[in-house]
Amino acid sequence: MSGRERVRAVLEMPVVQRAVIAVIVLNAVTIGMETSHYLMDRVGGVLHLVDRVALAVFVVELVARLYGYGREFFRDPWNWFDTVIVLVALVPASGPTSVLRALRILRALRLVSAVPSMRRVVGALLAAVPGMASIIGLLVLMIYIAAVIATKLFGDIVPERFDELPQSLFTLFQIMTGDDWGNVAQDVMGHRPWAWVFFIVYILMSTFVALNLFIAVVVNAMNDAEPSPAENRAQSDLDVMRQELAAVNAKLDQILMRQHAPDQR
User: Fold this and answer.
1) Which of the listed CATH numbers 3.90.1200.10, 1.10.3720.10, 1.10.287.70, 2.40.50.100 matches domain 129-225?
2) Alpha-carbon torsion angle 254, 239, 57, 119, nearest 10
């Protein structure tokens, strides 16, 4: 077994992967603790030490992956993601780049690449982007039409909310999220009792139709990304074969070493 294969085998060990995940979680917690003046006054040195150790672990793990996988390392988008996160963490947090110190918490995003289930979720969300773009376009069109209508109908009676198109767009976006829409409707209905028709139709179209379409697209993409039982069994069989091949290679190495030993004598 070559050096690259040994490094790759070590990196793929469940114990090593869990240790990396634990370091990511610990580092995220300590960075959050640094926002407390009380904790910084008492254990600030320890928190900084843990931060440096975690960064060293990330760098060593990334270099080991680069060595172990070679050119295959650059074919995986998640490896590029981890590389960017680690490089940002290596930027000096003083002088003109001091603002980047706040970006250290981005290391917590490495948890996404380290946990397979999270990778599947992110992959499903990215796969759903084309379908979501059409729904976003439809939603923007509905809000724009409703904003023009609301400005024409209610701008003179509730100018603080519907005086001009930008105000109407913001108010209708607020209503779509369900924030204080009842008070907005009551302010308008005090002058236009029939305005409830406009608000009910708008809420039904924007919230209950368009937003549910978002959920449907994402759920469909996640179902497509979820591995089937057959794929899980195939992956398990592949893992078993890899372990058996590794054991056979180890035995061959032992046999070759024994054969060379008498020759050296």
Assistant:
1) 1.10.287.70
2) 170
Dihedral sign from CA coordinates of 175, 179, 184, 186: positive
Residues making up the chain, counted from first to last: 265
Q: Cβ contacts of residue 4 below 8 Å, gap of 6+?
A: 67, 68, 69, 70
First to last CA, the chain: 24
User: What is the pLDDT, as a whole number, of residue 109?
Assistant: 83
DSSP letter at 228? P
Q: Are 20 and 61 in contact (CB under 8 A)?
A: yes
Is residue 172 within 8 Å of residue 143, measured between CB atoms?
yes
For the entire predicted model, the pTM comes to: 0.63
> pLDDT tens, 186-216?
989 988 899 999 999 999 888 888 778 877 8
The fold of 1-114 is: Four Helix Bundle (Hemerythrin (Met), subunit A) (1.20.120)
